[in-house]
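Possible race condition, two jobs.
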Amino acid sequence: MITGLDHYKEKWGILSDASIQPGLKAMEAALAELGNPHHGLPFIHIAGTNGKGSTAAFVSSILMAHGKRVGNFFSPAIEDVHDQIQINRQPVGEKEFDLAMEQLATVKTALTDFELLTVAAILMLKEQSPDYIIMEAGMGGRFDSTNVIEPLVSIITSISKEHTAFLGDTIEEIAWHKAGIIKQGKPVVIGELPESAHEQVIKIAEDKNAPVFTVQPYKGPLTLKGAHQEVNASLAWTAAKRILGDCFNEEKAISGLAQAAIPFRFEEVLPGVILDGAHNEASIHALVETIEENYPNKKIHIVMGLIQGKDYLSILKPLENIATRFTFINFKDERAMPAKILFSENISKIKTIQNEYDILPVHEEVEVTIVTGSLYLLSLLKQQNYEMFRLYK
């Protein structure tokens, strides 16, 4: 579900399929009907299991600190479809969407919802004529709808098991998908990858004659918390150096990284209430490390809701080692996992189930509430202005 897309589909009489159908043929055909608007645009392409959004935000901030105008295509939405497409970190408006959808209404090629959104993003971003466009892959890379672009540089942030029904059961298979964004002769910047994934990426890069750049964690000032964000910042730093060349200025890059922010990345939305969109094993381990680093002497209350299909046991177990209590949330999404499943598998002695409209008092100065799991849940709570957490002692 892409929040807000149906409004435009209905307005312009566009039909598209909500299913996931990996492959590029429909994208290529639809773009050809529109005159191939993606050709020649200054793209930066980002794939990876975790860290895509943060790395995209870091790259944007560095380029903007150098006076560049930057377009972004993020996935998924924070609030609705508008914030997935941004210019200088400002979401596009209804006028821009209407102009793109008016063109898409003429397209005869059948598209999925995400393909439709990707084409719309390309049309809108081209119209805005930014200096650079950062595209975040939705799932995988090789057969993701964003992989029709020819980037100046590709970035692979991390690789771990995810979407196994589509990407395969092994790290090597998943790495093969992610490395599909590497293009002939174009540089690729890679993060800290498992050895087997690293080997797969290097092999594909060599086959493409694409130079590979690895990184060391950045140790400068960051608003975004956690050791994993230092790695994401270093990815952005290395990529920006390749993009800007002799125009790269270290002071401007440091300033840009320090200012970079993105919702739901260990974001304190109210005193003692932190939202973090960790929703797989690797990102949960990064979350646990960040909690231990920032709140070593606090009681930890975990509030969680997940989408079905996630390996919820590998998500729950690391949190059980640090949490004092759990609250599992039933939230309105057709793919939401029933909270009773998480409740029954959780070994915590203090646990409960609520829905997103219940009030969840936050009243202990010695306790920190960490809301995590599905980005769709976090988005719902944001839309409700975090009313669930507004009853204090």
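Job #2 (started ~2 s after job #1):
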Amino acid sequence: MFGRVRAWSTRHGKAMDALRVAPLVVLALVTMWSPAVQNRAGYLALSAALLAPLLWLRRHPTTAFSVVALVSFGQWLAGIDPLPANLAVLAALWAVASSCSFPWALAAGLICELGVFLVLVSWDTVSFSMFFSGSIFIVTIWLTGLYASTRRRYLEGLEERAERAERERDQQARMAAAAERARIARELHDVVAHNVSVMVVQADGAGYAIDGDPEQARLAVRNISRTGREALAEMRRLVGVLRQDETDRTDYTPQPGLAQLAELVREAGVPARLDVGGGPVELPEGHQLAVYRIVQEALTNTLKHGGPGARALVELGYTGSELVVRVTDDGRGAAAPRSPDGHGLIGMRERASMYGGTVSAEPRPGGGFEVLARLPVPVTRAA
């Protein structure tokens, strides 16, 4: 029940402010019609000045307490007797003690103690017992405010620890699921690799037997077809395992290749030019994607570290046995700051090494930076 009340008060802050002020407003209005009140207009104005600051007590407790304390001090200077609305000082004291730091709470408590002393001094008969009784009342309210503050911070700490434990539990579950998916993917990879190896052996056998033993070649082709279907099914399972953590925002568009290089260079964000040399050859999609990502990362480095006015040149050279990719710029080169958490060069090298290539990246002697990648061109054998 208290949790629901707390949640409701959090959602309806202004309504809670009004509810806190309402009892004092009712008490002030009821007392205003007492015969002891001679100047009802002044009584109403002073009560409003004391109670109005309580409306922003939740958002600005120290400001509200300061205003109420100053009005009460002015009231004492004017020789006006205490009113029911002066209880606003106690409400403001509790708010400061429960929501502010200890120095503010201590200052508010001492000010209230001074107020009790000034009120008693203005009376004709003053005794230590009266001051002690008033102080006990003030200290009790002050201590309850401090307890509420401690209790609130304790509950906030429990909530924070619970949220952190929940996040860690979810993270551990995701890590365990990722490790299990990686293990399954490795197993499926072995199955697919075995099936592909069988297909290669069967295809070689069919090639040798096609002239001397057509029936044996036909049987080998059937085995290739069956094994290929099994490999395709396992590959689909493998891709499904690796995509289990993807969301609906997964992009299923084809991966970019050499045909998209011109658009990449044109939209790189830096002035860049693409030059292609040699006789182009047909590359597998994996090679084309590797070249595209290497050029993309190199242009990104130029944009991030080349400095203002840097220009880039992307060169593709086909030499028959390999494809040479060179991305140069005229930026700051060796003077460019290094990013401690950058993994672009590592990613380029990984992509190139996957296809037996190499990547080097270093500042140019005359200024600027150069990324040089060499990827061997697959040789297509005739059947």
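The beta strands are 272-277, 312-318, 322-329, 358-363, 369-376.
Logs attached separately.
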